[in-house]
Prior knowledge:
Elements: H1 11-22, E1 30-32, H2 37-49, E2 71-74, H3 77-85, E3 89-91, E4 99-102, H4 109-124, H5 138-146, E5 165-166, E6 176-179, E7 201-203, E8 224-232, E9 244-250, E10 253-254, E11 258-260, E12 273-280, E13 287-294, E14 303-312, E15 319-329, E16 337-341, E17 349-351, H6 369-382, H7 391-400, H8 423-430, H9 438-449, H10 464-476, H11 486-498, H12 506-513, E18 568-569, E19 572-573, E20 579-580, E21 585-586, E22 589-593, E23 599-601, E24 606-611, H13 617-623, E25 633-638, E26 645-650, E27 652-654, E28 662-663, E29 668-672, E30 678-679, E31 682-683, E32 687-694, E33 710-711, H14 715-718, H15 725-729, H16 741-754, E34 759-761, E35 768-770, E36 777-779, H17 780-791, E37 798-802, H18 807-819, H19 834-837, E38 840-843, H20 849-854, E39 858-862, E40 867-870, H21 878-893, H22 907-915, E41 947-949, E42 958-959, E43 969-972, E44 980-981, E45 987-988, H23 998-1001, E46 1011-1013, E47 1038-1040, H24 1043-1055, E48 1060-1064, H25 1069-1074, E49 1087-1092, H26 1098-1114, E50 1119-1124, E51 1129-1134, E52 1138-1141, H27 1149-1167, H28 1191-1195, ...
Parallel strand pairs: 15-17, 35-37, 50-52, 54-56
Antiparallel strand pairs: 1-2, 2-4, 3-4, 5-6, 6-7, 8-12, 8-14, 9-10, 9-11, 9-13, 13-16, 14-15, 18-19, 20-21, 22-32, 23-29, 24-25, 24-28, 25-26, 26-32, 27-29, 30-31, 32-33, 34-36, 37-38, 38-40, 39-40, 41-43, 42-43, 44-45, 46-47, 48-49, 49-51, 50-51, 53-55
Helix pairs in contact: 6-10, 8-10, 11-12, 16-21, 24-26, 26-27
Amino acid sequence: MPSSLLPYLDRHAAKALKMALNQSTDAFTVTSSFRTLAEQFVLYQWSSDSRCGYSQTEDRPGSSDSMRGVALDISQYQQFQHVASTSQFQWQGESRETRFTFSGSTFDVQGALIRSFQKLWNVNNPTENLVADGLYGTLTENALRKTAAGGFKKTPSCSFSSPVVPCCVSMKTRGICVQGDRCHSKNIIGTSYDCASLPSTVCCATSTSENTVLPDASTTETEYIYIVEIHTGSQRNAGTDADIYIFLTGSDGSTGRVLLDRAWTNDFEAGSVNRYSVSSKVNLGQINSVRIGHDNFLFGNGWYLERIVIEDLSVQTGLKYSVECNCWLDSSIGSTWVTLMVNGIARDSKSKHSCFTQINVVQPQAKGTAIVDAVIDKIKTASIFPDNKGLLRKIAWVESKFGQNPNTFRTGNQGVGIWQMDLIGLKDTQDTRAHPKLTAKHESIKKKFLIEWNSVTMIDLHKPLHAALAARLLLSNIQEAIPIGDDAQAAYWKQYYNTESGKGTKEKFLSDIMRIPPVPPPADNDCETTMVSSPSSTSMPQNVNSKGSTYCFASICDGNPFNTLRGSDACGSGEYGAPRAGGTKSHNGIDIICDKDRTVRAPFPSTIVRQSKPYTTAYLSGQNWEDGPYNDGLLIRGIADWANICAKLWYFEPLQTQAGKPLKSGEAIGISRDHPCTRNGQDIINHIPIEMYKVNVDQKCDSVKQGDRNYIDTTDRAFGCQGTVKDAATGVQGCSLVSSYGLAVQIMQQASCMHPDAVDLISGFEKLCLSNNVFPYLSRVAASSLRNFLDLPSSSVFTVSECLDPLPYQYIRSQWAKTGLCNAASAPALGTGPFANGTGIRVTETSVINAILFTGEWQQFHTPYTFFKYVNGTVLDTTSLQVRAFQQLWKANNPHSSISPNGQLDEQTKEALLQAPLSGFPSGAQCPGVVTPGVPCCTGDKQKGQCVERSKCRAENERSGQCSNVPNTVCCIGKSTLEVQFSSGVKLQPAFPPVGQETDLKDPHNSGAFLFDGTGKKTWDASTNFKFGEFMDQSSMFFRLSPLLVSCLQSVRSKANEAIIVKTGYQTKTTAVSYGSENSLYRSGMAAVIQFRSKDRVLPLTELILRHCLPVLREHSQDVGVGFQSDSLHVDVRDSLSAWSEDSISMTTAGYKTWVKAKLREIEDEAILLPLCTNQRELHYGDSYPQEKTDAEACGKIDTRIKRFSEDFQKLVQFAGDQAFFENEERAETWCGIPSRPCVDCRSSIVGSSTRLKCADRMMSERLEDRVWRLARLVKREWSNRTLIVHEAWDEPNSKFPDGFHHHSSLH
């Protein structure tokens, strides 16, 4: 490195670089890395003015990757490109060939640098203060120009009560700078000139183990110090570069989450011992537990924790605790967190703790059951492939006995690794020409596992993850789907995997898998959760309900906490009494939804009677089903309050079958398995059947014959919390807000039915963890803002522990606060505060506070400062909406009630709420009588759902209060008026997803395209030439479809001379994942794949899209995406125009883009009618035309300035062509429009057509845009080698000119 280089990077960037370099034997020279504000300013000026022989283009301060600490310039850039491909560094291309930029999440170092300068300026220039906002604007730049190169005279006064400031120059490796009275005397090495900027400081430490910092004398009364000593194991790969966090919990308090880090040192290396000072504002008392874990930064960052030693410096005797772990914290097989209990609280006391035994899944030649199950779970979690139906595990056992075969890890090209892959098979997994769908899978593997698949060699197959991926990719290349059942899978394996040339046989496969080790229960979720507000639990309470008679089940299946019933599917119904055997029998139990490979739990305290199978061999033969693990279960006998109950549970593989084995309620009893039933191309919904019947206390379960059994309708018991809101509010149901989750969901569904734009689900957001008791909704605008923040490359993963409070939660908590139950603190009044309105969140990580505030859309509103409220827009009164939704639900289930759905929480409504069932009403959310959003109140006689005069409404349809701004009017209701109209004139009502299918039918893009029930509608006309069935996923009767997409395609069909076939339309998540594109626009109903019957005319079809579809979309501020395929065309609705090729053999993406651009230019040129310019007066510089008119006379009086996101802004149009060059001088500014909106570069072409992406310099009135377009074409006709330059059009504020460049009275 050059001597002048600052050898620093952002923390995560530095870790990624280290990991990448560890895999390379080459040496590299870094010529540029982190830069300070002053350095970047000087280089930017040199670059702009071509001074000092500096020719490299530099970014303006405030928009510099170097200031962010994520940019590197490498001399050996060609060799480093391979290293970069294994990390998150990206080469910036030939325009700056030595530059590489880190693309992972980072801290806002740049903002901190600018903010630090602003504070230093303010200290030294009290009369010229800057706003310390971390934004680089004109005032900050002018101040920087005036600042002396040697620095400021005065520095801010800081209290360094924690070891955060690094020593500098010669002492930098020996310790950290602290105030003198905070060092052990033996560590003081004299007044340090290395920390001259910090008066009265010294450097501590002569070695790592002695670097102990004592508490500041001024804070000893309120700050308690604990020295934490971390022992990392000496095993291979035991160290980690992940961030390590710790929670210390004692008898009197907890530290909360604390990052363990020593500035500028390499912590947690194999065999190392690291010491840290952890402070607490309260004395923790006796330490009871330690929770420790890491952020899993980059793949394969497992860590082997050997031991933790804690010294309590708040106790004069120096009390110590030593806690053994000796375990791996690795996401490859389980959790990256562990809780260690401290037993025997005494000096030097020790307690043993056994935690996960884990193996790194990329460690060469790792083998065994644990590693195979870990790697299969890792691949399953990545959601790259569809379900392999257990075949991948069976192949690993048959081929190598999970790697135990001595020939597993041979070298060469035949039979390598746990899955015994040969070179021909590996090459097949890399052949994207023969298997085009592999491209998407390769990209997903690179994104999820940082593996460049085309670079994988045979020796890499010694690594379990690589070997498993190779096997799974090979299976995905097979056209025939993986079958269900051992016999069918044996034949499949022999035909496609072992092949005719292999020595294996179907019989040997079946014989081997009889001895395969059972699958262990799935590991716990590693997402850290924090319970808030009051002690809560997600498990169902097992108290007697308010009637004192019905006992409740525990949750039977992990992933279905509320025992949701199966309902109906292609194979039948899961309700009690549903027909069986063609109607000759009935279902004696209920079916509780349970995905395959989930832990199954005992529903109540019981003992095992025996193993129980649901089907006989004869029945299986008659159904043509293979026998399998699903054909198993248990017969159990209740104990205590359940002593007279026997129950059979099926479709799972029991963990144990020993008769008499006692079971606790909720104890794991087995693993659910896949049921083989398929009818009409649709699979059964996997579930656990449970049948219960009564026996006398002295009777045995098997002594009662089936025909004599007294079966029980278990529906009421299954839902766990059959009590009422009153039971929860008075503590009968325990201290659990979650007990009312079922009712809360129904209310929110009904509210969404009335106002679809009111709230949005936030579960499933990338980078977002949710605590267990969070109700995962926010107002739609707040949810959208949160998603935008999470989409920023700089944002990191964090946890939301509180968001929208549903009505039942609010009411129950308010009652607890009044009565002092459940340790509840004071609660806000019902319907008040951000949480009640869906605009508030509470986060658990303080590290994201500044990043959230920097968006400008959120403000802190409570202490501690992890409470935020959305402030950048107005939202509906969510509480009133919820009350009205509850009133509608109550009225539907109690038709004789006199409650009026007026949205007011009056005494009558409160009494009804107390009586409401916690799990929800029998009749759930519907859409009767909803006023169409956006319909104004009026006084004339209108259609149902709008406002009419009171005298013209039927009494039963009267809704008071809906039109309060219009005297003597009400809203009439009948059927739902929330309907979506397609170009055919057909109107469809939005539908709710069926229970259990919410995730599969969710719109991942929140596009606004509604979900519809397609039952009986396949042959209905969506437009003149298209049916709804053409756009539906064949695996589901539910679908999403954008009317705009249909109008687009119909406009093309109307101009085409032949039929257009829709190959692909809407896709469920399951279908999308099977194609390797989980978050595609197909799931939003915004995309389709189309073709002519002749199939090979893709370019003519593209031209029709550009000529006739694109204008339709741009009328609605949307653009089109077109994807070239070998015989068809992908079309979608999006914010900005995009073109690409999925068939690089026929046409590359670059070639297709060039063709599209040329065709657009041709179409645009045809649309211009060039005027005759003869006999026109010549214009000179400064002239105007018409000359005799003022601006006001020519254009009208200026009323008010147009702002982005305003109604007036929608009247402007964007100049979309490239006939003119737009100077767009503000492109380099930090923000444009509002502080949270980045500027865009639209000099040569538009960036997008959405309100947020439209470019200011290209925005103008429709008439002006037409004139500029004509003028640009005239210039081209007159001077073919010249282009019209537009210096300025519409003017909006930016970071350089916060009030805009032009005066408010300017025509701009």
